[in-house]
Amino acid sequence: MTKKITTLLLSSFLVACGGGDGDSVTTIDVDTGVGIYIHTYNFVFQGAYDSDVIVDATYESYQSGTKTTVLHSNAIYGSSDANVLEKAIKDGSEEIDVNFELRDANTNVLLADKQESYEYDYDDNDDNDYLDKLVFAVADETLSPVEYKLEVFDRPKEQSTATSAPLYVINLLGNDDVNVIIDNVQFQGELETIELSDKYDVDLTSPLSNITLQQLDGTELVFCDLSSESFAEKQSLIIFSKSTSGNASCLITEV
């Protein structure tokens, strides 16, 4: 956000005989930064429950200069964590620059990074200015060669109603596009890997039964039973990924 700081400037000249006042008042806008709320997901598969990686972010912070914040250090596959980059300020190009890094927790070796730049118009009347992001760290270390990826998305901010609720899908399995089938009807075709799907409006008066990912030739990739899930009063995300046993599975979470 920006704050207006008022300064009193004193004239360097004195008026000899009670002359005019040389003081002047100047108001300057100061960029005091904005909070960036980040929800980070660890899907670096290392063969079981353990996933010993760290995700951090480096940015410019008001009055603190260059700052690095650890976003995720929970060494459990499929876990998530929420953090805030406090008072992130714009650069000379009027953008907020953030560099995300995925590192090996034991050796500190850089595995992947992602440079992001955000345009943001501060609201002088809003003390709750913020950005909201989702960060996914993805890899499968049981494959050779290993490809580490960091992907960053705007967090959707759709509201549920008494009759419907927003639902999104992300596929972390393999590298091929897939079709998303919800209750035996294609919802979205050719969804790319590690991309958020379009919004699906869940009809709360008619609960969902299942969701399936299909290869583009129609072959079923993974089936997810939704019959016991409640989507009311929240925004949901279904994450398709490997389970800790190495099989394709789905995880349903609030986002």
In short:
Helix content is 0%, strand content 55%. With 255 residues, it is an all-beta fold. It has 2 domains: 32-155, Immunoglobulin-like; 158-255, Immunoglobulin-like (Sandwich).
Helix/strand layout:
Blueprint: E1 2-9, E2 24-31, E3 34-45, E4 53-61, E5 65-72, E6 80-88, E7 96-104, E8 110-118, E9 130-140, E10 149-154, E11 164-171, E12 178-182, E13 185-191, E14 200-203, E15 210-215, E16 220-225, E17 236-242, E18 248-254
Parallel strand pairs: 3-9, 11-17
Antiparallel strand pairs: 1-2, 3-6, 4-5, 4-7, 7-8, 9-10, 11-14, 12-13, 12-15, 15-16, 17-18
Overview of the molecule:
With 255 residues, the protein is mainly beta. It folds into two domains: 124 residues, Immunoglobulin-like (Sandwich); 98 residues, Sandwich (Immunoglobulin-like), CATH 2.60.40. It has a four-stranded mixed sheet, with no helix packed on it. A hairpin with a 5-residue loop joins β17 and β18. The radius of gyration is 24 Å and the shape is globular.
What's the CATH class label of the largest domain? Mainly Beta
Which residues form runs of ≥5 with pLDDT under 50?
4-17
Beta-strand portion reads over 45%
CATH architecture of the largest domain: Sandwich
Work out the helix count.
0
Number of domains: 2
First and last CA, distance: 25 Å
The average pLDDT score comes to: 89
Largest sheet: 4 strands, mixed
CATH topology of the largest domain: Immunoglobulin-like
Q: Could you give the order of strands across the largest sheet?
A: 6-3-9-10
Q: What does the overall shape look like?
A: globular
